User: What shape does this take?
Amino acid sequence: MANSGGSIVPGTGLGPSPHLLAARAANLLFTLTLTFVGLTAITFIIGRVMPADPVLSIVGDRASKEVYEAMYIELGLDKPLIQQYLIYLMNVLQGDFGKSIMTTRPVLDDIIRFFPATFELASVATIAGILIGVPMGVVAAVHQGRLIDHIVRVVGLIGYSVPIFWLGLVSLLIFYGWLGWLPGPGRIEVYYDGIVDPTTGFILIDSAMQKEWEIFRNALSHIVLPASMLTTFALAYIARMTRSFMLDQLNQEYVITARVKGLSELAVIWRHAFRNVLIQLITIIGLTYASLLEGSVLTETVFAWPGIGQYITNSLFNADMNAVIGGTVVVGICFVGINMISDALYRIVDPRAR
Amino acid sequence: MSSGTTATPNSSRRLKAWLLSDSPESVFHARCQRFYLGWRAFSTNPIAMIGLLIIVSLVLTAAFAPLLTQGNGTEQHLSDRLLAPSGDHWLGTDELGRDIYERIVWGARITLYIVGLVGILVVPIGLVIGTVAGYVGGWVDNVLMRFTDIFLAFPRLILALAFVSALGPGIENAVLAIALTTWSPYARLARAETITIRNSEYIMAARLQGASGLRILYGHIAPLCISSVIIRLTLDMAGIILTAAGLGFLGLGAQPPLPEWGAMISTGRQYLLDQWWVATIPGIAIFVVSLGFNLLGDGLRDVLDPKSGSAG
Assistant: This one.
């Protein structure tokens, strides 16, 4: 990391020149465009080129020759590959991913309908991961090499090593099957379905806003298990990175100065060292959030969570390529977007990175 | 190389003295010493030793699977369906009466096969792209690294899912999809290493002697990149195993009747509440093995890369 220096150095007062800012914005835009072109090119290859015969997968092998030819031309397969790609790119830019064979609706509509559930799950898990992981990492760094540090390290390694879908099944078995403390799969009980108006699409927020506390409690009890699975991963990553950032800071001279001044240990840790860690954590939290959005695929399958991951896997088994590709592109864009935003945020917050 | 092997003494004391002497007599001698010192540091790290133990037992289980079991994990005994763990069937039986212990043991082979194949695919791709980009520089570097960055920016599991869905399910296609989504960090790593090595004096010397660019790349630079690539691979192994198991769980990896652990969890899922052992036991195997790789990778990094040791 480029910012291994001490405390935040005050800016020169002038700030970066407009010229430099413009150059940086142009560079960012270029990277973003390139990534987008790459993403669509790869999904185009996956969707149109790799399947043995895209026409056959739509019309079926009993179709007559005329139907086959008509579909061949309708799909634009008689055109050169590069032209096919450009048409595909134009469609994607207009939000047109074609129709889903499974739901017979435009793929984008489906995605908009399924996305909030995934978003809600990933948000709850990220927040929980921060609330538990950050203090864990700080405590481990402060007690470096002692028992608590080893415990945090092992907990982190366990979080990295456990297959999330298996952990989900085991927790369902214990808390739903054996103990009966928590409800089974799904986002909400069927008889509560559709009562709250989807203003935000987050059931937790919608039901709280409409003061439907019974529904809120039900939704909360449903989200506990799947969110805990994702939290396991988030927690491991955040705690590990916090510990390593915190160790970096605690070895800096300004920490010694603060101690020499006679500040309490709490003040040294939280007000001085931790503040600098906080900035570095932005990138890490962005990365966690993005990887949870995609990592929810398996969790959603286990818990029958009606999100984008389940949508993609269900489409996959119905050979619904439009939906698979559309979902992949949208998740990919979110993934890249969140990483870019956290990177930009980091540059804004940390004067040294400007 | 040859003079060192003849010097191996019988007594362990002399061996130790030979390993610790200040003036190595041959390249082989020096290599042995480096290995011995590394091993001494490694073996005092209990976490890494546990990891090594797990991986060694995985390899041994896979190698001696025919000795450890009576069948090959695919024989069906429909009269013995879904039996709970007992003396006859240590870990119970599944929905087709197959012994779960046998399937776990034979599944070790599949896990090693996947991990090994991904490693064999990913390391050369990463090394070639990374070293060429770092050594040649200029627009070649720019193009190759932009290309790498595109792959680096993608969500891995989803991309692997899309790849497998286009290629069709199967163990080889799962390996290919995982390789296609994991090679990019290796290229970045190899490039960074190459750039630090590129301008060193012995590369200049090799160039003065008239060595071609290709020879410098593969005779002098690539071998030096390998150690950091291997550490990274060990740390990634757990992720590769988890992705493969995830693909298996979704029915996109190894196909029945192969005893792949992820696929075993998937079939056991419908019996979860009544016959819990069918789904849960293969998961323990996945967990233990990926934990083993993580512990080993962590320890290796401490030994081979002291900079990031305690801070990582």
